[in-house]
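Input record, target 12 of the design panel.
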């Protein structure tokens, strides 16, 4: 579904991506791990076209992306943003149905609202949530609204940016379970970036570690737990000593 070939991106002298090569199969749930500042968010933004790589190729369904092709790709893509990125001034249902209320393919408001309420139900939120503002919701509920918006158009590809950031362990487990069940039921291809190892173990078919601008390692969760790679082992166990440089 997605193929990255030698993707490079620098910001001044900061070489964030230094030749990332990675493939994501159709229907696969890939989780990219790596420390803060390792370039995980930049990688997703390159795929989405929010950032232009300095070098390399991005192919979707085996074809290089053109401007028109990117619009078609984005039309079948959903994104759960790290901070939720909900519109504070819009009620929940309009946040969820945002893409259906604008543009040439806009739905009548009643139909858009019904679609939103259906998607809210899929993430465990009742219809009574629809007319509330984001500020009236807890962090966990806001994250569910963001997930409902991400799946609103039944996307074939979904990106999850630190989906459990800022959540307590119980709510993190709820979000992880929702992500996994939705991905399996829909058959969507999923790309998640996180440093939360509980999320990795709950939602990943395959794991890739991004370190110093390249994919250091990739494999299944079982292979990750058994690997002798010192970088992966240090990261997944949170060990202060190892080859990954840490602040002292």
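The sequence produced for target 12 reads:
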């Amino acid at each position: 579904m997605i193929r990255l070939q030698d993707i490079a991106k620098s910001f001044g002298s900061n070489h964030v991506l230094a030749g990332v090569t990675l493939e994501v199969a159709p229907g696969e749930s890939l989780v990219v791990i790596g420390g803060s500042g390792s370039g995980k968010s930049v990688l997703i933004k390159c795929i989405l076209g929010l950032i232009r790589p300095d070098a390399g190729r991005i192919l979707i369904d085996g074809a290089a992306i053109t401007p028109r092709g990117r619009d078609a790709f984005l039309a079948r893509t959903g994104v759960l943003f790290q901070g939720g990125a909900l519109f504070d001034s819009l009620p929940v249902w309009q946040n969820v149905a945002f893409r259906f209320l604008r543009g040439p393919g806009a739905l009548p408001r009643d139909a858009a609202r019904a679609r939103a309420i259906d998607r809210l139900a899929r993430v465990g939120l009742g219809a009574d949530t629809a007319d509330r503002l984001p500020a009236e919701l807890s962090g966990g509920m806001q994250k569910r609204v963001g997930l409902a918006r991400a799946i609103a158009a039944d996307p074939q590809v979904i990106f999850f940016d630190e989906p459990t950031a800022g959540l307590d362990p119980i709510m993190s487990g709820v979000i992880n379970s929702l992500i996994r069940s939705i991905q399996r039921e829909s058959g969507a291809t999923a790309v998640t970036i996180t440093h939360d190892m509980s999320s990795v173990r709950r939602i990943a078919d395959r794991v890739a570690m991004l370190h110093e601008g390249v994919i250091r390692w990739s494999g299944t969760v079982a292979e990750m737990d058994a690997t002798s790679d010192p970088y992966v082992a240090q990261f997944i166990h949170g060990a202060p000593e190892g080859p990954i440089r840490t602040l002292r």
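Residues 1-76+156-248 form a domain with the Rossmann fold fold (CATH 3.40.50.300).
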